[in-house]
């Protein structure tokens, strides 16, 4: 009998092409997702070296960060820099024979939402993208890494990646989530617990009853933010929920190929007794809805809590940095979270821009109105999500409540397109990053779940979704 292995060990072993004397490996890459921000120099490198893309059929390109999300976007991109990046990807995809979803394609959207919904993301695969939130795809039991631009070029040219193996970490979330508490709250709580460096050097496998009970959308939310916890990647073993999600997706294996794939996928779980270098255990039943108060995703607290006092922190560097965060956020220690008023609400991003997220938000706002002091928008994560939401009438619910209903893209998750906060504006956001300037110069971000963001839009301040009527 061979030694028991973790899910990470298994996928790793199945993809190692060669190992050198230092332990550095060449890994075979099954899928490569490409967006406009991190690919122009990579394609240029290929061009200069006279190289081709090694496996165009394993590569998929889509624009997301720079595309406008306003209904008039078919008239073209006004911002010069954004337009150049988007045009470059279109040209590169054409020149190198890579499938490409432009902003006019219904399948366009945020790269990490598009991959899974096309069945491009499958269990057991190695998946890369020049984007840190590639960890999202780990929800399918795929080993999914974010990579840099020079690595994008390497993968385009060779379909391999140079990697050293990371350590194994297990995060087990036992029990069942209480009503009103979501996958977003799970991952925010985990990051609050382990800190933004907590996963450094590790691949995190998420397991336990609460994780198993999550839908694929919820699992993607959890794996998406693994990167905010410092880990190389996040993983969840595939199960019936996974297979059910994948089954009819356009690029999923069909017929005999499906049966064979399923046989393999069912072996993709950690063996009994497999070794983890670190184990963290949380109890889902104790989790509240969570709100971030500072400028790091580890700065989190229960919605029933108060803004903490940095003076209670022993470590001086940390104390100074948390004071700075409070100053940036315009908050005082002791303020009740539910007394914090918001100016903007953003529901979208690769963390929470999927259909289930929009359903959760719509349920909260149905028949209600966005507060007069708040400007709020919903940005579906992809054209497919948008179409599904419209088929269910969610767009009407949102529009009647006073939300803007936008076209798909990264939007206000990061200030790289026209959607951004003005200096001093405070936003309840379903995205994943809250560092200074992330959503716009001097903008203030509070990370929350879709239901919590929706409730804040209506109330004008944070409210405990568990008490929502
Ligand atoms: C622009 C891109 C390289 C970046 C990332 O890698 O994550 C972006 O998606 C982000 O979320 O900050
Ligand atoms: S939605 Fe945000 S986090 Fe996701 S890829 Fe786009 S910018 Fe990055």
TrEMBL record:
Belongs to the aconitase/IPM isomerase family. LeuC type 1 subfamily. Pathway: Amino-acid biosynthesis; L-leucine biosynthesis; L-leucine from 3-methyl-2-oxobutanoate: step 2/4. It is an enzyme of class 4 (lyase). GO terms for molecular function: 3-isopropylmalate dehydratase activity. It comes from the Bacteria. [4Fe-4S] cluster binds at residues 350, 410, 413. Heterodimer of LeuC and LeuD. It catalyses: (2R,3S)-3-isopropylmalate = (2S)-2-isopropylmalate. Residues 9-460 form the Aconitase/3-isopropylmalate dehydratase large subunit alpha/beta/alpha domain. Its cofactor is [4Fe-4S] cluster. Keywords: 4Fe-4S, Amino-acid biosynthesis, Branched-chain amino acid biosynthesis, Iron, Iron-sulfur, Leucine biosynthesis, Lyase, Metal-binding. HAMAP family: LeuC_type1 (MF_01026). SUPFAM superfamilies: Aconitase iron-sulfur domain. Catalyzes the isomerization between 2-isopropylmalate and 3-isopropylmalate, via the formation of 2-isopropylmaleate. Binds 1 [4Fe-4S] cluster per subunit. Its EC number is 4.2.1.33. This is 3-isopropylmalate dehydratase large subunit. The lineage of its organism: Bacteria, Pseudomonadati, Pseudomonadota, Alphaproteobacteria, Hyphomicrobiales.
């Amino acid at each position: 009998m061979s030694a028991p292995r973790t899910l990470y060990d298994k996928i790793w072993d199945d993809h190692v092409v060669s190992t050198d004397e230092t332990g550095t490996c060449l890994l075979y890459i099954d899928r490569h997702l490409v967006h406009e921000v991190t690919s122009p120099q990579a394609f240029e490198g290929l061009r200069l070296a006279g190289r081709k893309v090694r496996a165009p059929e394993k590569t998929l390109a889509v624009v997301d960060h720079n595309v406008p999300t306003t209904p008039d976007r078919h008239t073209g991109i006004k911002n010069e820099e954004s337009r150049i990046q988007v045009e470059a990807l279109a040209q590169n995809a054409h020149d190198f024979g890579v499938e490409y979803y432009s902003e006019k394609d219904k399948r366009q959207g945020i790269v990490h939402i598009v991959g899974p919904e096309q069945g491009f993301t499958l269990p057991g695969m190695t998946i890369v993208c020049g984007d840190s939130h590639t960890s999202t795809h780990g929800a399918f039991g795929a080993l999914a890494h974010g990579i840099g631009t020079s690595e994008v070029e390497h993968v385009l040219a060779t379909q391999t990646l140079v990697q050293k193996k990371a350590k194994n970490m297990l995060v087990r979330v036992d029990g069942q989530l209480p009503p009103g508490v979501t996958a977003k709250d799970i991952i925010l709580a985990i990051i609050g617990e382990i800190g933004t460096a907590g996963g450094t050097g590790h691949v995190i496998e998420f397991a336990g009853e609460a994780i198993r009970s999550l839908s694929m959308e919820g699992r993607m939310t959890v794996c998406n933010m693994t990167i905010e916890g410092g880990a190389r990647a996040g993983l969840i073993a595939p199960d019936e929920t996974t297979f059910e999600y994948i089954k009819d997706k356009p690029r999923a294996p069909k017929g005999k190929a499906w049966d064979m794939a399923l046989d393999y996928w069912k072996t993709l779980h950690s063996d009994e007794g497999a070794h983890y270098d670190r184990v963290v255990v949380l109890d889902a039943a104790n989790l509240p809805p969570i709100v971030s108060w500072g400028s790091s995703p580890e700065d989190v607290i229960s919605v029933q809590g108060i803004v903490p006092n940095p003076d209670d922190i022993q470590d001086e560097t940390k104390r100074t940095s948390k004071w700075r965060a409070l100053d940036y956020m315009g908050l005082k220690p002791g303020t009740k979270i539910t007394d914090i008023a918001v100016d903007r609400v953003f529901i979208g991003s690769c963390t929470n821009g999927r259909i289930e997220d929009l359903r959760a938000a719509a349920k909260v706002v149905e028949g209600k109105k966005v507060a007069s002091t708040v400007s709020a928008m919903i940005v579906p994560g992809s054209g497919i999500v948008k179409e599904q939401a419209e088929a269910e009438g969610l767009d009407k619910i949102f529009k009647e409540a006073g939300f803007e209903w936008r076209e798909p893209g990264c939007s206000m998750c990061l200030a790289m397109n026209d959607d951004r906060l003005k200096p001093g504006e405070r936003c309840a956001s379903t995205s994943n990053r809250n560092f200074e300037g992330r959503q716009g110069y001097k903008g203030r971000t509070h990370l929350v779940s879709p239901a919590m963001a929706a409730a804040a839009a209506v109330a004008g301040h944070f409210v405990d979704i568990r008490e929502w009527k």
